[in-house]
Design brief:
The complex is a heterodimer of chains A (234) and B (242). By secondary structure, chain A is α+β, with helices and mostly antiparallel strands. Chain A is built from 4 helices and 16 strands. The chains are: A alpha+beta (234), B alpha+beta (242). At the A-B interface, loops of A face strand 3 and helix 4 of B.
Chain lengths: 234, 242
């Protein structure tokens, strides 16, 4: 993250707004040059740290990229694979051939059936469809647990620097958590733990831009532990 | 009674107190609230997402599907829920008004759903709906060239007024009432939507356009402020309509 190098608050721009004169800047992501000005094409934060001005998206639907690790739910089964809902503009498909182990073609639903949750990787994006794979480390079926959905642009905050935030939540709620880059998060633990992990994640999303986020979450998780034990005592 | 002053005591080019806010629907990809006085609309944007039925898909571009919905309790006499001839027409003009500023080529074969709910109505509901929808689209991170702002200009008797109310819309004395909803783009001031209900001469129509440009500039400032995180609620108490 570039927070360290660029301490100053980034400005929010809206579509059609003039960001800066184009005299000594170039248009980058989601910007255009028009009448000697750099103009925003999208709502988001401005990154003007270099010569190239770009907009960092902060909201909106998931935009799939090749190599993204995502969480999806099986929507349909065809003769050679699974149709998977991962959010975003197009439906995704996991072919039978992209499964790491042998699966009987006649009993394709024995591996994963409609409603099952999988951890997948986006292998390729063609016009109008997304191809998925299970052939990579850490991918596979997620048994049990529950799936929550957050804004996909807040995923880096939920994970934190080198996974600090997600590990904090995992450890203090005693749950297993997998975060997909599409904003789907799978949580598995006991009922209380799942509930508290979900609350903590929603708090991270809500407070994503505030400073001292880790401390706030620590306090939230710590505070809740005491509260629960008190209730037990009564 | 000739029309010399407005029933709620506003100036001829003055807007009603504005409410504007984004992020009012947590489950949507983007959402916004916009109110002109008593006329209150919320808009929620979902997508881009796969479009079904597939025969509506366009191979080279996406589609905007607007749904304008006036809630039963929004008017004095209960509105029958569900689509009507009027709401279908307004949905269509709203989709057209928004489509021209959105970069639809980015995701071919997809749809962006825009749901507009009118919670309270006192004329200019389609304008409030379009203003809210434009903000919701921007909030949903949709790639757009610029914003759009909408206002209803009226010719009440022989006066050109901005942001008309139900009372003004129903004016019968003198030359009567003409209601002209305008939607203009924020930078180029191009018209993306224009309707007209009544009679007006060409020269007065040009005057109406100038009034619309002025009013839309004001509305754009509210939209901009709300999108930058401000919660706008101008709770100015207007004189009760006589």
């Amino acid at each position: 993250m570039t927070e360290k190098t660029n301490k100053k608050q980034r400005k929010i721009v809206i579509p059609g707004e003039i960001i800066v004169s184009a005299e000594d800047h170039l248009p980058g992501d989601f910007t255009r040059k028009e009448d000697g000005n750099i103009i925003a094409n999208r709502y988001g934060l401005v990154d003007d740290s270099g010569r190239i001005i770009r907009i960092i998206p902060i909201s909106g639907a998931f935009e799939p990229r090749r190599g993204n690790t995502v969480i999806g739910r099986v929507e349909d089964i065809t003769f050679n694979g699974w149709v998977i809902h991962i959010g975003g503009p197009y439906t995704a498909f996991l072919p039978l051939a992209e499964c790491p182990r042998y699966i009987d073609r006649k009993a394709i639903n024995e591996f994963a059936t409609i409603g099952d949750v999988l951890n997948l990787k986006i292998w390729g994006i063609k016009k109008g469809s997304i191809d998925l794979t299970l052939k990579s480390r850490g991918l596979g079926k997620l048994e049990g647990g529950r799936v929550i959905k957050i804004n996909s642009h807040k995923v880096p905050r939920v994970i934190g620097k080198e996974g600090s935030m997600i590990n904090l939540i995992k450890n203090s709620t005693n749950t297993e958590i997998t975060v997909g880059q599409n904003g789907f998060i799978w949580i598995k633990g006991d009922f209380e733990g799942e509930k508290r992990a979900e609350e903590a994640i929603n708090l991270v999303v809500k407070e994503a831009t505030s400073t001292g986020l880790t401390e706030k979450i620590e306090e939230f998780l710590g505070g809740k532990v005491e509260k629960i034990t008190e209730e037990v005592k009564e | 009674m000739p029309y010399t002053k407005r029933p709620d005591g506003r100036e001829m080019d003055e807007l009603r107190p504005i409410k504007a806010e984004v992020g009012v629907v947590p489950n949507a990809d983007g959402s916004a609230l916009f109110a002109h006085g008593d006329t209150l609309a919320i808009a929620a944007v979902y997508g881009p997402k796969p479009l079904h039925p597939a025969h509506l898909q366009k191979a080279d571009r996406g589609l905007i599907r607007a749904n304008y919905n006036m809630l039963p309790f929004s008017v004095t006499e209960r509105a029958r829920p569900g689509p009507s001839r009027r709401s279908k027409e307004i949905s269509m003009v709203t989709a057209n008004a928004l489509s021209s500023v959105v970069d639809l080529k980015r995701f071919p074969g997809t749809v962006i759903d825009v749901e507009i709910l009118i919670l309270q109505a006192n004329a200019s509901t389609r304008c409030a709906g379009i203003n809210a929808a434009a903000m919701a689209l921007a909030h949903a991170g949709i790639v757009m060239n610029e914003m759009v702002s909408s206002v209803s200009i009226g010719k009440i008797d022989d006066k050109i007024v901005a942001d008309i109310t139900k009372k003004e819309e129903d004016w019968t004395e003198g030359e009567g009432a003409t209601d002209i909803p305008f939607t203009l783009t924020s930078n180029t001031k191009e018209i993306t939507h224009l309707q007209l209900d009544g009679k007006i001469s060409t020269s007065r129509m040009m005057e109406s356009y100038d009034a619309a440009v002025k009013a839309c500039e004001k509305i754009y400032e509210y939209q901009k402020r709300a999108l930058k995180g401000e919660k706008i609620d101008e709770n100015v108490s207007l004189k009760k309509e006589e």
